[in-house]
Request: fold
Amino acid sequence: MYKRILIPLEHSPYDETILAHIRQLARHCDASLVLIHVADGWAARNVKALHLRESEEMREDREYLEQIAESLEKDGIEAECVLAAGNPGAEIAEAAEREHCDLIAMSTHGHRFLQDLLYGSVANEVRHISHVPVLLVRAERRSLGTRATVTAEPSGRPAPVKGAP
Reply:
């Protein structure tokens, strides 16, 4: 059914929700995964135009994506990484087309109407502008830190994302 799935990750504890779902789906469909993180800070948005070096935050984001990909590959799931910069919704939709993905699978925070009006919703933007089907999985709201890391257990099996729900 699905052969190539784009997974937008935030580099937050919410990522584990979509990763848990997508591991099963990828195995079932024998699909490869494309992990994407869109850096949207000032430096990230202007890195090319101003010929800036990659920021520390972007380096951490790249390492995070690579750790997740390695964890997936240890589980027998083919994965590659894309670090993008700019408007997250637009970058995700464009990457799905560019990477020839047939599904975008992402987690949502479950904001309510007022919060979505104030802060916007990347998931909402993606579902409106993408020509690729979008699977949304609601992550549980938790009072967790803002960054997550991946480690391996002594057995070599991937461990859950630290700080994840």
